[in-house]
Amino acid sequence: MTKQTDAARHAETEAAKRPKGTILEILGASAKLGLTSFGGPIAHLGYFRNEYVKRRKWLDEKSYADLVALCQFLPGPASSQVGIAIGMMRGGLPGGIASWIGFTLPSALALMLFAYLLDHADVSGAGWLHGLMIAAVAVGAQAVWGMARSLAPDRNRGTIAMLTAVIVLVWPSAYTQLILIAAAGLVGRWFLTASNVPEMPRLGIAIRRRTAVAALVVFVGLLLGLPLLRSVSPSQGLALFDSFFRVGSLVFGGGHVVLPMLQAEVVPAGWVTKAQFLAGYGAAQAIPGPLFTFSAYLGTVMNGWAGAGIALIAMFLPSFLLVTGALPFWDTIRNRPHFQSVFQGINAAVVGILLAALYDPVWTKAIHTPYDFGLALAAFGLLMLWKLPPWAVVLFSAAGGAVISSFA
């Protein structure tokens, strides 16, 4: 017990010594990801892992996996929440804001401009766009492979990962994922011994528990109070904020799940026509960053730049409040010895969930012909064997997709 306690103290001391970043550093790193992260949540997590874990070493593999597991539990865009959490680890609340701005703003601005200039453009058949989707296959495969080697390296954890992937594919529901993560935690608690789990380093969250509790109180207050205010006030801005905040608070399962919820909010109300909605969705597939920035497009269509700002902030505010409220408690729980085997099972399940997401929707939407598979294999080789940076592989895949489309 003394040895384990000494190891825990050493881990906390090392975490305390971990250098914190400047706001500009965090903003620059996240903006780079915001400009290059094509392909949806599974690919985003791969880009994050390459940048924050492997290249910058801001956190270790297991801490990153724990953040991913936490964000799978929370409603909202998981990849954006992971980015916010890493920003908070590096620079506190200002760091979380900087990380969100850097990752979100490029795609939000692009969609706002599209709403003004190209609201009827159809980019769904562009060859270069298909190439970007193929790049997402390679980046996602690299992420799953790397995390599996670290988090599911033995027979027991590998079995948890594979069973999780199979069940998610057979019963594709966000609630299925939540149930499986909880079940994997129970399996880990009873069948995976804590002695096999290395000591977890502290995440280094510079957020007080009082701040965390306040963030959760604000979240619940807005979720319950905004509809009441909307019922007594005719303000369109308030109605817009309420609609997007509610969607951002209640959606599980990532960007594609949010689309029908948004359509139900904005199309029947007459804020956006169905043609405008579909045109914006097509444009959102062609840009990097989180799909939730589709809210900026819708807000622009409804009320220009002001509408875009209201919709974008309302859409992501729930995620920011939930991450702020959860991180300090999560950091404490994950470092208790009795919970380490629980997280061992949870992390194996996360690998399985990411593996399932790699197949559907990433693989199924990108790989249709032998040429597609060949390009994906080449991109994967450039990442794994030639160690090219992801942005270079993205450019290579876009060019390859354009070439394939020219003679297909």
From TrEMBL:
Coiled coil: none
Primary location recorded for the protein, binned into one broad class: membrane
Keywords, comma-separated and alphabetical: Cell membrane, Membrane, Transmembrane, Transmembrane helix
Family matches, as InterPro entries: Chr_Tranpt_l_chain (IPR014047), Chromate_transpt (IPR003370)
Family the UniProt entry places it in: Belongs to the chromate ion transporter (CHR) (TC 2.A.51) family.
Superkingdom to which the source organism belongs: Bacteria
Cellular compartments annotated: Cell membrane
Transmembrane segment boundaries: 97-116, 128-148, 160-192, 212-232, 244-262, 305-330, 342-359, 379-404
Keyword Transmembrane part of the UniProt annotation: yes
Membrane topology: Multi-pass membrane protein
Pfam families in UniProt: Chromate_transp
Name assigned to this protein: Chromate transporter
